[in-house]
């Protein structure tokens, strides 16, 4: 920064005087002013965030995303938190005290100090300057900002933008170095907030002491990390790698050094290195995600700390760019140079300690750090380290994360800092807490006892009144609150919540009155002969199996293990069971539960319920080591064989004795055990791994075979039903009338004769008297004592087995449908399949986990984006193929072009980044629908980043490809001009962004999240911004495919070289070669053009002139959202108006997609026009009741609420395209589109668009139906394109027809004065209008 840009030292006293004058005027004490400034600060970091990112990148090569997330994002969070809570913060805090002061009114009043000085550092030049400013503004102070001179671009930007957004009379910025800072410290200020080095902090504190003013210091220090031997090394390595190298280690709370055992070190280092390579590639110098050291001085300081003899990774540096690579140093001692000061760079020394005690001693022998990090799976060990050390903050099993929550204070202790801030703590830091007491005059008779002359009597009375008393019976604060007693009242009314009373009543009934409040153990129940462990009848075993299966189903449905499966006491101690079948059954259930939870649900990473979110809080045994999966399956098979032998023995005796009941129960138990074995085997097949730990591709044939066998078992099972004892005779008549299935004498499988009846329609009746010995088998209260206090409790009520077996039939159907996924060979087809599956099959978390693991099988240590699709295809390759088929980019299509290394790296990096987006997209679709919508909103942020990158790539590739085409095909100037104006990568990313946006909004309709009073804004936004853009993208892609396919085909058939005869050449395109090498089974598809509905003869000659003016027309049409009209393709039903007459009859590559999008566009346009007409026509009246009267007052029906608008569409705010429209702009466009029309025109326009929507949807439906009729295949009504199924289209047609009739009646004045209602029962996306 030049001296001319610095603030003159002589002007600083005058600047401070102006701030003092403003503060004394009381302007900043106004709550309205404080909120206004916080809103403006929020707006500053909303609108100018990219300027901040550019400035930081220019100063020290800081990645844009780090500035957006860790500076701008956290500042916005602080602003919002303050705005949400400032009304409570400024209120006076009333206080209570002892009896002698009870008559006084006492409170604490928060008042601003006056003029605060905030001195920021260079490493986070915006966060650490503006986050304290939030607290200063909220407290009502005037403020002086002093950004660091070491980040000159950032400081200049602060100086430029602050006066434009914030009150310049109250908030000033001073630029400069030491001279300016000293002038500020000597000036008239009331508070100093400093963030920076400890040495400078001492100077600041000395200056504050001379002026006797308060100060907050945030200084830093060496933040240690202790890694226990039981830590999850993979997660630990990745998190330490991230925390150490964000901002290239120039973070005050970055991990400074590691403490761990030698064994842990050897396991940890490879994980850290792997994470760094994943984050920053093999060469971080070329990575756009890796920051550099801020200046030469700091570069040399950090470089000097590296001991080359102890470096095991990294250690590279380049002075020209102030670059130091991520570095690990081992065998470090406390005397090494790197341990003498805070590193503040990407160096990671590791010091070996024997255990946590040595680590604690090492930490305590040094200055108190700003942060302390502990990685362990043992909460007690973490608590011990926390209790026996001191630091500014602590984070367990992560790093840096503790500074994020606004509800937590952030600050140092000792040399690492003084004071804290964030959220309410920022407000308190910049506020003086002023004690206020009001003494009433009416109590002067009591107060006057203090007055002289003093007597023994008055002294004794005063001592008695003022005597303090200990609170020996301390009542916790929670018991004094209203909400506690409200909760107690509710629990007394709701038996489901009154768990404590239920438990006591349950155990009061136990025979041993002296132990009535203690839960008996399994051994005690067995000793009392209350729990049977041997000599079970087959009837009892069948009953236990059905009860267990019902509990298992409830667990899969999302309930807790403790309140479902583990209510069966046998599962707690299977080893105590002497009956072989029951012991095998219980162990199999335990193994199946453990396998589903550990190897399927947790492996998929879909955490929704308490039992699926990490380590279990119970001490249940799952026999993970003692019994292997195959052994358990073999044990079940052995039980089947034993039961088959017993059945054959009974059949032998049946000629002399009536034992049909026993035969029936034996047969049913055998079928159930076989069903359990098949179910277990199906789960195992979905998670087969090879010798290196990689999940193998799905074997659909084997799973289908097992599913068929499982379904056959379910058809033979008779569900158990308890009946009353007086109906026992009817039960006998029922069961003896059943034709008993015969068991093959050579195996345990059942052979049903043709004349035998279907057992699935028959129930197995059981009387309570026949299972009286199983009274204590299932105890719903047994696990209550183990549950945490806040755990959701309910009385166990099992689903009847008749329903349970039907649900398992549905489960088999879901898995069978899941196997169809392997036929989806493109990302688009897979995406639509996932949507169809989640919409129409409502899968449980178990099935959704199977879906994700089948599509993206897990591999040891490989994150989601690195997995292979179906275990065979690299994700980034699939994206390339998807892009090639969608828009035919030359870089992925032309076989004979030479691609240089720089171009290859740029494009390949884009596809690698895209793999993160798309893998997270499929992961999101495997969550429940509410969580899916939440995750889709997060994905749009990544879409924004990729849109930026895609634009840059398109610009790069246009220059690169035009040079090639000019040399090879000089006569095809028209085609080259078209490609020059085409953004292939951007259009591809925009297409997927719009897909996500559409599904996000329509999911909101399906989840019933929108008020009917928001419908106008929603349908308008959908039609004029989202669907309009998507139609344009599809039309453009179709146009490109039509006009370039043959041209590219000719180039691929012959290599065009200047001055030489045309000849066949090998493939030189590195991307195509890479695809072929990675996917040899798809070679022919990769080398050929994408499959098309158009033959080459239909396309015409490539030398036909292309109307390039149509590109300009298309761009103009894209801007016509301002007048509410659709692109020409949406109004006349065509899609190729952008082409010349010679191609007007060509069929579209995207005919089905365009028909659906046009239909949606017309439906949304019809609805928003109709809704506007209804509002103008007073057909929609929002009525609300006044407080205590029955009178009804009218208000506008459709909400005009900026906050609600921002809430609905804020996830779209960061997108490059379609641009997020600010609320006032949006309202202006609505007015321009619908506001200038009369009611009749609006009704007529609505009818026209409803009719158009009907035509589009019928056209789509007819083509789909015709296609299935020609192939003689049944029509799958759940078949989905985009987010729209055939079933949806049928309902859309019905809605459009009905609405046409209703709108025509309304236009004719039918039932004028009556209001209109919206019926979403036909379809959740669009309402049917009802009078």
Automatic annotation (TrEMBL):
<keyword id="KW-0812">Transmembrane</keyword>
<keyword id="KW-1133">Transmembrane helix</keyword>
<feature type="compositionally biased region" description="Low complexity">
    <location>
        <begin position="1090"/>
        <end position="1106"/>
    </location>
</feature>
<dbReference type="GO" id="GO:0004029">
    <property type="term" value="F:aldehyde dehydrogenase (NAD+) activity"/>
</dbReference>
<dbReference type="InterPro" id="IPR016162">
    <property type="entry name" value="Ald_DH_N"/>
</dbReference>
<feature type="compositionally biased region" description="Low complexity">
    <location>
        <begin position="1119"/>
        <end position="1145"/>
    </location>
</feature>
<dbReference type="InterPro" id="IPR057983">
    <property type="entry name" value="NAA35-like_N"/>
</dbReference>
<dbReference type="InterPro" id="IPR016163">
    <property type="entry name" value="Ald_DH_C"/>
</dbReference>
<dbReference type="GO" id="GO:0031417">
    <property type="term" value="C:NatC complex"/>
</dbReference>
<dbReference type="InterPro" id="IPR016161">
    <property type="entry name" value="Ald_DH/histidinol_DH"/>
</dbReference>
<dbReference type="InterPro" id="IPR057982">
    <property type="entry name" value="TPR_NAA35"/>
</dbReference>
<dbReference type="InterPro" id="IPR029510">
    <property type="entry name" value="Ald_DH_CS_GLU"/>
</dbReference>
<feature type="region of interest" description="Disordered">
    <location>
        <begin position="1086"/>
        <end position="1148"/>
    </location>
</feature>
<dbReference type="Pfam" id="PF25789">
    <property type="entry name" value="TPR_NAA35"/>
</dbReference>
<keyword id="KW-0560">Oxidoreductase</keyword>
<comment type="similarity">
    <text>Belongs to the aldehyde dehydrogenase family.</text>
</comment>
<feature type="domain" description="NAA35-like TPR repeats">
    <location>
        <begin position="819"/>
        <end position="1328"/>
    </location>
</feature>
<feature type="domain" description="Aldehyde dehydrogenase">
    <location>
        <begin position="26"/>
        <end position="436"/>
    </location>
</feature>
<protein>
    <recommendedName>
        <fullName>Aldehyde dehydrogenase</fullName>
    </recommendedName>
</protein>
<dbReference type="Pfam" id="PF00171">
    <property type="entry name" value="Aldedh"/>
</dbReference>
<dbReference type="InterPro" id="IPR012394">
    <property type="entry name" value="Aldehyde_DH_NAD(P)"/>
</dbReference>
<feature type="transmembrane region" description="Helical">
    <location>
        <begin position="984"/>
        <end position="1003"/>
    </location>
</feature>
<dbReference type="Pfam" id="PF04112">
    <property type="entry name" value="Mak10"/>
</dbReference>
<keyword id="KW-0472">Membrane</keyword>
<dbReference type="GO" id="GO:0006081">
    <property type="term" value="P:aldehyde metabolic process"/>
</dbReference>
<feature type="active site">
    <location>
        <position position="218"/>
    </location>
</feature>
<feature type="transmembrane region" description="Helical">
    <location>
        <begin position="1015"/>
        <end position="1034"/>
    </location>
</feature>
<keyword id="KW-0520">NAD</keyword>
<dbReference type="InterPro" id="IPR015590">
    <property type="entry name" value="Aldehyde_DH_dom"/>
</dbReference>
<feature type="domain" description="NAA35-like N-terminal">
    <location>
        <begin position="493"/>
        <end position="624"/>
    </location>
</feature>
């Amino acid at each position: 920064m030049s001296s001319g840009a610095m603030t003159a030292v002589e002007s600083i006293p005058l600047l401070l005087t102006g701030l003092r004058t403003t503060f004394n005027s009381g302007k900043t004490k106004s709550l309205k002013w404080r909120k206004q400034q916080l809103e403006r600060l929020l707006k500053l970091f909303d609108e100018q965030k990219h300027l901040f990112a550019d400035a930081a990148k220019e100063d020290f090569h800081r990645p844009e995303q780090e500035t957006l997330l860790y500076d701008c994002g956290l500042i916005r969070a602080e602003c919002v938190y303050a705005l949400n809570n400032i009304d409570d913060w400024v209120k006076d805090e009333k206080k209570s005290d002892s009896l002698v002061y009870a008559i006084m009114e006492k409170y604490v009043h928060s008042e601003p100090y006056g003029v605060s000085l905030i001195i920021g550092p260079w490493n986070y030049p915006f966060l650490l300057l503006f986050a304290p400013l939030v607290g200063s503004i909220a407290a009502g102070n005037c403020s002086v900002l002093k950004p660091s001179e070491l980040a000159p671009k950032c400081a200049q930007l602060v100086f430029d933008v602050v006066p434009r957004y914030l009150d310049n009379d109250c908030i000033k910025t001073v630029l400069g170095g030491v001279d300016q800072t000293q002038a500020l410290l000597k000036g008239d200020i009331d508070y100093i907030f400093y963030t920076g080095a400890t040495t400078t902090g001492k100077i600041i504190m000395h200056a504050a002491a001379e002026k006797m003013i308060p100060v907050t210091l945030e200084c830093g220090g060496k933040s240690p990390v202790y890694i226990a031997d039981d830590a999850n090394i993979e997660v630990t390595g990745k998190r330490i790698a991230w925390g150490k190298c964000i901002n290239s280690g120039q973070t005050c709370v970055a991990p400074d050094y590691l403490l761990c055992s030698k064994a842990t070190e050897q396991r940890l280092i490879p994980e850290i290195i792997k994470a760094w390579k994943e984050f920053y590639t093999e060469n971080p110098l070329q990575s756009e995600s890796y920051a550099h050291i801020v200046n030469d001085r700091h570069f040399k300081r950090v470089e000097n700390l590296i001991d080359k003899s102890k470096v095991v990774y990294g250690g590279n540096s380049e002075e020209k760019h102030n670059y130091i690579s991520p570095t690990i140093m081992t065998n470090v001692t406390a005397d090494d140079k790197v341990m003498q000061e805070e590193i503040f760079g990407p160096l990671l020394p590791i010091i070996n300690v024997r255990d946590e005690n040595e680590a604690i001693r090492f930490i305590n022998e040094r200055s108190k750090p700003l942060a302390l990090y502990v990685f362990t799976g043992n909460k007690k060990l973490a608590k011990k380290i926390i209790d026996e050390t001191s630091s500014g903050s602590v984070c367990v099993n992560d790093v840096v994360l503790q500074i994020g929550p606004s509800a937590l204070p952030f600050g140092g202790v000792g040399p690492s800092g003084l004071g804290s801030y964030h959220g309410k703590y920022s407000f308190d830091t910049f506020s003086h807490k002023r004690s206020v007491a009001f003494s009433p005059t009416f109590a002067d008779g009591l107060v006057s006892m203090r007055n002289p002359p003093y007597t023994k009597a008055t002294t004794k009375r005063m001592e008695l009144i003022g005597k303090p008393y200990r609170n020996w019976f301390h009542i916790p604060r929670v018991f004094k609150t209203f909400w506690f007693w409200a909760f107690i009242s509710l629990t007394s009314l709701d038996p489901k919540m009154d768990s404590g009373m239920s438990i006591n009543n349950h155990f009061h009934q136990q025979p041993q009155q002296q132990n009535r409040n203690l839960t008996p153990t399994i051994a005690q129940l067995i000793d009392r002969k209350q729990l049977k462990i041997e000599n079970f009848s087959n009837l009892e075993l069948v009953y236990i199996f059905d009860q267990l299966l019902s509990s298992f189903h409830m667990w899969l449905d999302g309930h807790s293990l403790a309140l479902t499966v583990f209510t069966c006491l046998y599962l707690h101690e299977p080893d105590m069971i002497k009956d072989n079948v029951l012991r095998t059954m219980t162990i199999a259930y335990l193994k199946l539960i453990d396998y589903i939870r550990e190897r399927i649900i947790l492996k998929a990473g879909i955490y929704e319920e308490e039992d699926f979110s990490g380590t279990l809080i119970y001490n249940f045994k799952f026999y993970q080591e003692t019994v292997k999966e195959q052994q358990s399956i073999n044990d079940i098979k052995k039980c089947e064989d034993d039961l088959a032998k017993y059945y054959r023995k009974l059949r032998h005796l049946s000629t002399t004795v009536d034992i049909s009941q026993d035969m029936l129960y034996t047969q049913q138990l055998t079928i159930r055990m076989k069903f359990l074995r098949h179910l277990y085997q199906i789960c195992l097949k979905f998670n087969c791994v090879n010798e290196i730990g990689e999940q193998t591709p799905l074997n659909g044939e084997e799973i289908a075979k097992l599913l068929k066998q499982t379904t056959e078992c379910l058809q033979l099972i008779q569900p158990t039903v308890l009946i009353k004892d007086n109906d026992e005779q009817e039960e006998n008549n029922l069961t003896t009338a059943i034709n008993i299935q015969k068991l093959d004498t050579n195996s345990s499988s059942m052979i049903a004769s043709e004349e035998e009846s279907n057992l699935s329609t028959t129930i197995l009746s059981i009387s309570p008297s026949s299972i009286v010995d199983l009274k204590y088998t299932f105890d719903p209260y047994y696990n209550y004592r183990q549950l945490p206090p806040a755990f959701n409790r309910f009385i166990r009520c099992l689903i009847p087995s008749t329903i349970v077996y039907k649900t398992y039939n549905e489960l088999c159907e879901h898995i069978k449908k899941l196997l169809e996924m392997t036929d989806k060979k493109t990302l688009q087809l897979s995406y639509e399949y996932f949507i169809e599956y989640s919409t129409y099959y409502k899968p449980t978390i178990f099935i959704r986990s199977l879906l994700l693991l089948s599509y993206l099988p897990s591999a040891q240590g490989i994150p989601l984006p690195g997995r292979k699709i179906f275990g065979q295809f690299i994700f980034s390759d699939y994206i390339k193929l998807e892009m090639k088929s969608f828009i035919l980019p030359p870089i992925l299509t032309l076989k004979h072009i030479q691609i240089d290394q720089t171009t290859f790296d740029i494009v390949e990096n884009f596809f690698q980044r895209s793999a993160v987006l798309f893998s997270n997209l499929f992961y999101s679709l495997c969550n429940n629908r509410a969580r899916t919508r939440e995750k889709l909103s997060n994905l749009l942020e990544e879409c924004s980043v990729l849109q930026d990158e895609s634009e840059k790539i398109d610009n790069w590739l246009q220059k690169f490809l035009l040079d090639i085409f000019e040399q090879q095909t000089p006569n095809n100037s028209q085609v080259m001009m078209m490609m020059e104006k085409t953004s292939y990568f951007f259009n591809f990313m925009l297409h997927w962004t719009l897909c996500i946006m559409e599904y996000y909004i329509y999911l909101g309709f399906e989840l019933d999240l929108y008020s009917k009073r928001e419908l106008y804004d929603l349908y308008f936004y959908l039609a004029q911004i989202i669907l309009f853009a998507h139609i344009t993208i599809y039309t453009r892609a179709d146009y490109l495919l039509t006009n370039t396919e043959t041209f590219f085909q000719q180039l691929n058939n012959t290599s065009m070289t200047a001055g030489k005869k045309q000849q066949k050449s090998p493939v030189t395109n590195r991307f195509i070669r890479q695809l072929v090498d990675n996917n040899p089974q798809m070679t022919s598809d990769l080398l050929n053009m994408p499959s098309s509905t158009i033959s080459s003869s239909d396309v015409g000659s490539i030398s036909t002139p292309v109307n390039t003016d149509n590109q300009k027309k298309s761009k103009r049409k894209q801007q016509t959202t301002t007048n509410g009209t659709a692109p020409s393709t949406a109004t006349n039903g065509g899609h190729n108006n952008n082409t010349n007459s010679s191609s007007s009859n060509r069929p579209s590559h995207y005919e089905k997609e365009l028909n659906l999008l046009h239909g949606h566009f017309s439906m949304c346009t019809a609805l928003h026009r109709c809704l506007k007409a209804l509002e103008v026509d007073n057909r929609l009246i929002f009525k609300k009741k006044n407080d205590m009267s029955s009178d009804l007052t009218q208000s506008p029906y459709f909400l005009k609420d900026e906050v609600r608008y921002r809430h609905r569409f804020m996830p779209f705010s960061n997108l490059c395209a379609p641009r997020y429209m600010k609320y006032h702009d949006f309202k202006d466009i609505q007015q321009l589109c619908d506001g200038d029309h009369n009611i009749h025109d609006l009704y007529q326009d609505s009818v026209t668009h409803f009719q158009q929507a009907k035509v589009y949807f019928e056209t789509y439906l007819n083509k789909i139906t015709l296609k299935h009729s020609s192939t003689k295949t049944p029509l799958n009504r759940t078949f989905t394109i985009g987010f729209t199924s055939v079933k949806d289209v049928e309902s859309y047609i019905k809605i459009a027809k009905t609405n046409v009739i209703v709108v025509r009646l309304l236009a004719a004045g039918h039932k004028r004065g009556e209001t209109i209602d919206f019926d979403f029962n036909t379809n959740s996306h669009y309402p049917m209008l009802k009078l």
